[in-house]
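Field log, afternoon session.

UNIT: design team B
ACTIVITY: writing a sequence onto a fixed backbone
BACKBONE:
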């Protein structure tokens, strides 16, 4: 998939645990895990906004577009 989720990178840079982020954002730790693994089809803008606020980052720090090589 050409959209890569770098949430794990941002969590490491900010030294924030998934559990703590889940509490701040108001979603389950399971959903944070799914986001980190890229196994979601989409993310709500309000959830993305809360994640960015909690991690003090921009959406582009979390989501990256990498075109398929073909």
């Amino acid at each position: 998939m050409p959209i890569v989720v770098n949430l794990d990178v941002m969590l490491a840079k900010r030294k924030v645990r998934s559990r703590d982020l889940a509490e701040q954002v108001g979603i389950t730790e399971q959903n944070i895990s799914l986001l980190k693994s890229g196994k979601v089809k989409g993310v709500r803008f309000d959830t993305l906004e809360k994640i960015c606020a909690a991690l003090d980052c921009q959406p582009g720090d979390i989501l990256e577009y990498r075109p398929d090589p073909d």
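LOG NOTE: The chain has a mean pLDDT of 94.
NEXT ACTIVITY: expression trials, pending approval
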